[in-house]
Write the structure tokens for this entry.
Amino acid sequence: MWIRSQDKEILINATCICLGSENHICAYASNAEGDNWYIGKYSTREKALKVLDMIERLIKEQIRLHNVWQIGVVFPMPQDDEVDCW
């Protein structure tokens, strides 16, 4: 899945996306080295988990519509103040 980092400096084809320490969201690249990158930081764990939920929904929607992940889709990581928990 292609993701643009929160600071707009990384465009990564992620094979694994996870919640790291200090509410960072990490993405692991699909290269042979298996590099990982911080692609977003949020003020609370709840906000970071909500962003992971947003990514999951996009993946499910793409699979539902097209039965495959669309190569041209890029998920832009939202800024902290753009994530509303409730």
